[in-house]
Amino acid sequence: AMKMLNASIHSTLDYATVVVFASAPTLLGFSGAPAVLAYLLAGVHLAMTVLTDMPFGLVKIIPMRLHALVEMLVGPTLIAAALLAPSLVMGAQGFFVASGVAIFAVWLLSDYASATKSA
C-alpha cells in the first residue's frame, strides 16, 4: 500500500476524528446507544492521540506501533459491530461503518515509521 500519510498528517487526522465522533450525535441526531458509542470513541481517540509519541501528541507515552495496532483493530471492529449488531447502532449504522472504513483506510495509508524519524 502507498504510505502517503506522514505522522504529522496522521496526527492531524486523529484530532479531526475526535471532532467527528464528538459532534456526530448533535449533527446527525443520534441519541441513546449510538450517541454514547460516538462520545466514547471520541474520548478514547482523544486520549490515544494526546498520549501517543508522534507530532502533536502532548504526553508521548504510547508508542506509535501500539497506536497503529489499535487503529488496525478499531476500524474492522466498528464495521463488524455496525453490520452484525445493527440494533446497537440503530439509525447510525452507516456512520459507524463509514467511520470504521475511514479509520482502517488511514491505518493502511499511514507511514507510522515517520513518527520515529521525525521525533
Following the backbone from N to C, one meets helices and strands in this order, namely HHHHH
The helix/strand class is mainly alpha
Q: What's the mean pLDDT score?
A: 92
Oligomer description? single chain
Strand content: under 5%
Number of domains: 1
Q: What characterizes the major β-sheet?
A: none
Put simply, the count of helices is: 5
Which spans have pLDDT < 50 for at least 5 consecutive residues? none
Q: What is this structure's SSE topology?
A:
Blueprint: H1 7-28, H2 32-51, H3 64-84, H4 93-109, H5 113-118
Can I get a quick summary?
Helices cover 72% and strands 0% of the residues. It has helices spanning 7-28, 32-51, 64-84, 93-109, 113-118.
Structure, explained:
This protein is mainly alpha-helical and 119 residues long. The protein has one domain. The chain has five helices and no strands. The chain has helices at 7-28, 32-51, 64-84, 93-109, 113-118. Helix 1 (7-28) packs antiparallel against helix 2 (32-51) and helix 3 runs antiparallel to helix 4 (93-109). The two termini are 24 Å apart. The model has no long low-confidence stretch (mean pLDDT 92).
